[in-house]
Amino acid sequence: MTNALTVNVPEGLPFIEFEREFDFPVADVFRAHKEPELVAQWLGPRGLRMEIDHYDFRTGGSYRYTHIAPDGTEYRFSGIFHTVRENDFAIQTFEFDAYPDVVSIEFLTFQDLGGGRTRLTAHSVYPSMEARDGMAQSGMESGLSEGYERLEELLAGAGTPQAQSGKVTA
Amino acid sequence: MTNALTVNVPEGLPFIEFEREFDFPVADVFRAHKEPELVAQWLGPRGLRMEIDHYDFRTGGSYRYTHIAPDGTEYRFSGIFHTVRENDFAIQTFEFDAYPDVVSIEFLTFQDLGGGRTRLTAHSVYPSMEARDGMAQSGMESGLSEGYERLEELLAGAGTPQAQSGKVTA
């Protein structure tokens, strides 16, 4: 699959990088990252329900959401948006409540490839090698991969009634 | 000097660490980091005047300030506070306008040593080795060192009339 997620976990540096292409315009991919009603429909692995406390995708905004597993287990995430530039770039912090104060910072680039296609590139920076390794081994890659599949389904207007009601229009 | 600034620039990891002790209570050291009228009196090297656009030292807050050199050159800094815990801990992002989008994240610990003394410990995380090296070579250490001397003067109620008017009271 030409659009498959690629993940890089560099040895000896506390970074994770990934890249994912989409056959959708950058404005649509960006909007799906910006609007909480859309974010709730794709972010995270299949099978987890997402409840958003707040999600204010703008420079100086903040977010907090919970992923709820079928057995009721809750996973809470929060952070702040240092920078958000429309259809271009975002920098956010990321904290998982199970590991308080272990906060990473992620640099997300939305690149217009032309021809109605987009490349998403992320550079995540962890406060220690242990934190980076913990994240890399946490099932992060499959969660990301599934999330981006769900994002594609949302952008295509396919999938569940929820996704259809949240269809991204140009 | 038992309270001298110690700086560690670890090889091969994009971090800078530093530590500084003060013969002042943690609440006073914390307040000097929290209140913009106080921050303006110590943060940065001697000889630079600080103008604060905003400085909201709380979880989810943000800051922007300018250091102005005698020749009029301006250096602008901004970021957001991911976490602030009273007399305890803060996490903030840091961006210098001359290097847009090169954003670091800093973990600042305020430790009550007892006996009216405090240890400040910082762990700064850079998005690349180049960014870390650039900061380490920028005169950061002397700027930090001078700033903490100015902080001590402020806490002691000594120094300029400005410092006296901003004296920290228990």
Automatic annotation (TrEMBL), chains A, B:
Annotated signal sequence range: none
Domain called Activator of Hsp90 ATPase homologue 1/2-like C-terminal: residue spans: 23-155
Pfam families: AHSA1
CDD domains hit by this protein: SRPBCC_CalC_Aha1-like_9
Similarity annotation: Belongs to the AHA1 family.
Protein name: Uncharacterized protein YndB with AHSA1/START domain
Lineage: Bacteria, Bacillati, Actinomycetota, Actinomycetes, Micrococcales
